[in-house]
């Protein structure tokens, strides 16, 4: 078998450099044994994607085959470093280009390929942390742009993979954060939300959120957003009421309100209120809220920040 020739980067003009590298990568797809070359080429593409907006535009332009080549390589390669390089390229593309580039990745079949990669990666024991962080980060960005993402994720068994990663890595915030972001996307689908609830996701969120802390505020914020989405399910809301979480939410809210004197964590406080709003959509939730003295608590706290507290007070229908 002849060795693939790698074109020196300096021999290509700025305009054709990325085109040449993508052409090489396409040829490598037909030569599975060329893992060293694939690593080299994808690392060069990653460097260009990180440093040049022009490269990112060219790879996602109408008529470009760059995304197909990357996804085909991602689907077929068995080399870990090549996989990580391509995932990093995809992160660059979807992070810098807004919704259009995310939608472009979805139309090229990115959701299904990444979900399949997630399933394959989960079979490793233990799963590779960098790989899981990258996959979850990208899926959390593209999921909202894929109308069938919730169904695809459920069919591919992705829900439990992500949920179990959080359960097993609660102290690893680098891994847990993108997993929570993806759980929030899963929860937009009502069937997924109920399924996750049955597997303990509501209880899990309360292991992450808690009293005021100057640490891990971004993690708590995402956990609260995820909880609010989960509690839109009447089944999950009943579960939360049965476990006494309405009182817990009120206690946590008061603690954050008392300590957040400079109002730097308004999004967290709003997230707690949103979760209360979700759970009080059911009659049992409203009763639990009133029994826990919720009306008085929010009225008193709303004297300082009336916009947030009054918003939920006015939105709660009578029992």
Automatic annotation (TrEMBL):
One Pfam family this sequence matches: TPR_CCP1_N
SUPFAM superfamilies associated with the record: ARM repeat
Protein name: Cytosolic carboxypeptidase 1
């Amino acid at each position: 078998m002849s060795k693939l020739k790698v074109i020196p980067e300096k021999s290509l003009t700025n305009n054709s450099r990325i085109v040449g590298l993508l052409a090489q990568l396409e040829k490598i797809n037909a030569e599975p044994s060329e893992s060293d070359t694939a690593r080299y080429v994808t690392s060069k593409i990653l460097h260009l994607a990180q440093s040049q907006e022009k490269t990112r535009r060219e790879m996602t332009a109408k008529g470009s085959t760059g995304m197909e080549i990357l996804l085909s390589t991602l689907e077929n390669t068995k080399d870990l470093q090549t996989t990580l390089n391509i995932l990093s390229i995809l992160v660059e593309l979807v992070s810098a280009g807004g919704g259009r580039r995310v939608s472009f990745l979805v139309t090229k079949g990115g959701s299904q390929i990444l979900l399949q990669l997630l399933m394959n990666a989960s079979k490793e024991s233990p799963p590779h942390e960098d790989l899981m962080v990258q996959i979850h980060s990208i899926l959390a960005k593209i999921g909202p742009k894929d109308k069938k993402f919730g169904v695809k994720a459920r069919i591919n068994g992705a829900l439990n993979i992500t949920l179990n990663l959080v359960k097993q890595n609660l102290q690893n915030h680098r891994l847990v954060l993108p997993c929570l972001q993806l759980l929030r996307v899963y929860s937009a689908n009502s069937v997924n939300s109920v399924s996750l609830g049955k597997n303990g996701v509501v209880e899990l969120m309360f292991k992450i959120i808690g009293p005021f802390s100057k640490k891990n505020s971004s993690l708590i914020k995402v956990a609260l957003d995820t909880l609010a989405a989960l509690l839109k399910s009447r089944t999950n809301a009943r579960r939360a009421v049965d476990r006494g979480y309405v009182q817990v939410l009120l206690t946590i809210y008061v603690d954050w309100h008392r300590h957040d004197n400079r109002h730097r964590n308004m999004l967290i406080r709003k997230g707690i209120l949103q979760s209360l709003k979700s759970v009080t959509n059911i009659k049992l939730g409203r009763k639990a809220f009133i029994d826990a003295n919720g009306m008085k608590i929010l009225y008193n706290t709303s004297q300082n920040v009336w916009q947030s507290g009054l918003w939920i007070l006015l939105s709660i229908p009578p029992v």
